[in-house]
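Quick one:
INPUT:
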């Protein structure tokens, strides 16, 4: 019985130091949760791959989708689109991008507007069109023609 007690005591002594180190590490990491992030670059650790930092470069201009029949839509601002199609059914903002949705019996037209480096006001750069009845894609120019006032 004394051998069992001696074995337990020896095991407790061997585990005490690592257990204390783990407890201390957890306590320190819990305190660091509210730390202010450093603005300097993180230090490289040998054998650990570098983490790519996001670019802080100015946003690029959106690519413009121009196709026959989309004249007057692509490049238009919100006011011009409302004068052409009437009030949008949806007006959705996502960051600095905007989607206006116009609908009629023939089709639904989604117009995507993005700001450019020359203008803060978003302008239409892309359109999508689908049938109102079943959501199948339709010709964008035909939808634009059908929805014009």
């Amino acid at each position: 019985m004394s051998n069992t007690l001696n074995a337990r005591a020896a095991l407790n002594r061997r585990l005490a130091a690592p257990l204390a180190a783990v407890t201390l590490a957890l306590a320190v990491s819990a305190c660091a949760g509210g730390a202010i992030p450093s603005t300097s670059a993180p230090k490289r650790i040998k054998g650990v791959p570098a983490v790519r930092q996001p670019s802080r470069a100015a946003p690029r201009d959106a690519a413009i989708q121009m196709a026959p029949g989309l004249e007057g839509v692509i490049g238009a601002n919100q006011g011009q689109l409302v004068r052409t199609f009437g009030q949008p059914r949806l007006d959705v903002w996502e960051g600095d991008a905007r989607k206006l949705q116009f609908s009629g019996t023939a089709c639904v037209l989604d117009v995507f507007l993005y700001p450019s480096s020359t203008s803060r006001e978003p302008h239409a750069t892309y359109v999508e069109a689908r049938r109102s009845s079943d959501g199948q894609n339709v010709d964008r120019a035909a939808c634009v023609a059908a929805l014009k006032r």
